[in-house]
Inverse folding.
């Protein structure tokens, strides 16, 4: 499994002019792929552009194209912050895509694989939607 810190190191070393790649990192974490492969899939299949993010539907489509099922989950988490969700046990098992206004975070077996991890940089971004990857 690819970890967030490893993926960011690769991104910064080999793709220094790119940014806004939270969807690429999310796809890499969900599939276990390297950053380069996930980036390539987002470019070729989903039309991602350098220094631009992607949409909820495009990331979900990319995940589903790899044989996973993406299911929208309980709306009771909407409006809560990423910091609060990480402290709860709601996502201790499984893989979840958590979307905020302009960002996506992956929670995999209770671990936040993102810069918004409470141990790295806690954030008060409000959750807009949550999908479980099965």
């Amino acid at each position: 499994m690819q970890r967030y810190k490893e993926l960011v190191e690769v991104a910064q070393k080999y793709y220094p002019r790119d940014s806004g790649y939270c969807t690429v990192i999310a796809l890499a974490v969900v599939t276990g792929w390297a950053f380069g492969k996930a980036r390539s899939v987002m470019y070729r299949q989903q039309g991602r552009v350098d220094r631009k993010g992607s949409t909820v539907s495009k990331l979900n489509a990319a995940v589903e194209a790899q044989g996973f099922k993406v299911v929208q989950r309980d709306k009771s988490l909407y409006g809560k912050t990423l910091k609060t969700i990480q402290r709860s046990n709601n996502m201790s098992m499984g893989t979840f895509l958590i979307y905020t206004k302009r960002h996506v975070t992956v929670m995999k077996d209770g671990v936040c694989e993102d810069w918004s991890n409470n141990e790295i940089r806690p954030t008060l971004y409000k959750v807009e939607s949550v999908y479980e990857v099965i």
In short: The helical segments are 4-14, 22-31, 35-46, 56-65, 82-87. Strands lie at 70-72, 95-100, 103-108, 111-113, 129-133. The two ends are 16 Å apart (CA to CA).
